[in-house]
Amino acid sequence: MKQFFLNYKTLAATILTVGLMTACSSDDDSVNVDTETETETVNDADSRWITVAAARMGEDPGDGNGGTLIYSISSEDAKDPTVSIEPFDNGFIVPSNRTARLQSSEDGNTIFNISYAGDTGGNYTKYTVEGGQTFTQTGSEISIAPYVGTAPRWIKLFDGDQTGAAVYVSTEIETDDDGNYTRTNATMGVVTLDLVNSQINNFQEHSVPLSDEEEAAGYYISRIDMPTLNAAGDKLYIGARLSKVDPATGESDSDYEILGSKTIVLDYPSLLNPTVITSAVGHGNTNGYRSINAFEYNGSVYQANQNDPEGSHILKIDANNEYDDSYVFNLDDALGVEGAYILAWRPAANGKAVIAYRHNGSAEGVAGAQGFFALADLNAKTAVKIDDIPYDPDFYLFQYQGFVVDGTEIYLTEAPVGQNGNIYVIETETGEVTKGAELVNVEGSHFIGVF
């Protein structure tokens, strides 16, 4: 939830002028691996690697602050319930002070990571997946910290594994000559990263205003995340969270009307000409949390929202770069629950999606509210809870990050905090659920997805 109250513009511009970033040594990021753990080779052309991500407990169960470990198996083994893996004991330690923000290539052969917080915060690295705990660093490292800080919010764009985009927002209260509140200025920074050659493509910084009426009432953009390319590849959508101050005092206001969901639209690849669009269907935030929150499908971008008073929606942004307010997909209505909150989701190319969610009826577990999975249809605007996955009060999905899409199949992980679980594979065309490999857990820790 941190906001950056720093101005990186001068430093970033200087770095760009002198030739962008210089690759740095990765010697300090070496880790000890269990050489007795065998790796495997995928020989079947129809197979792909499935990389399991495990978040170790820091001080509290489920906080994930003890670091991230990854372990890969073939998709055949991932579907085999007789296979058992122990990522916490045998996994590769991903460089990151807290839970790593991972991405994978579309074929599963490469893992991308930008360290989150700590001395290595903002460092970009990529690894070739070779099975088991073997992830071989490839290419050079680069730091994006001068642009977006040491705890960057970043995502891999869906452009053939070519580009990553990271963002930050800083805020400053503005007053008149008499010291009276006038508005809160939100300054957004966006950097795009060449994932192939490990270099900065572009960096831009903009002030992002709301309407005069909204700003006078104390609203401002307080967090941004999850950049997504439109189908034409000429616009970048960035999800936003709104906060509010009391104009009379300039102090934070927590009891206020939730406005329509908003998205920042930029020209791409120039990152210029920011505008803000507003949904008349959904209310609340569109920045998501740890997982990708918006996806292009069939010429439009479909986006989840959170903290909607009427329950999370899937919203639709059309090719005209405006919300399609004729598209109404409310998860409360679809699932027959109240207070649905989309924690993470991922569609396949057929428009069928798996959604991780909680709702007002979720049990309170050791780390937070109980999570569930649903199978949704973007075209029919329907969703149904996946009942063939076991649910436990300690099944915690707030930090969930990754699904694997392989054709019409979607892979996911299920394991309560501190308990063993399994990989599950959903055939989105039929809804058939396959129980796969066992995931061996350790006390207080949990699994945050597959890549």
Question: What can you tell me about this protein's structure?
Answer:
The chain is mainly beta and 451 residues long. The protein folds into two domains: 205 residues, no CATH class; 176 residues. Helices cover 7% and strands 42% of the residues. The chain is built from six helices and 29 strands. A five-stranded mixed β-sheet has the order 3-28-27-26-25, with no helix packed on it. A four-stranded antiparallel β-sheet has the order 4-2-1-29. The longest helix is centred in the N-terminal third of the chain and has 9 residues. The protein is globular and about 70 Å long. The two termini are 25 Å apart. The N terminus is likely disordered.
Kindly summarize this structure in a few lines.
The chain is mostly beta strands and 451 residues long.
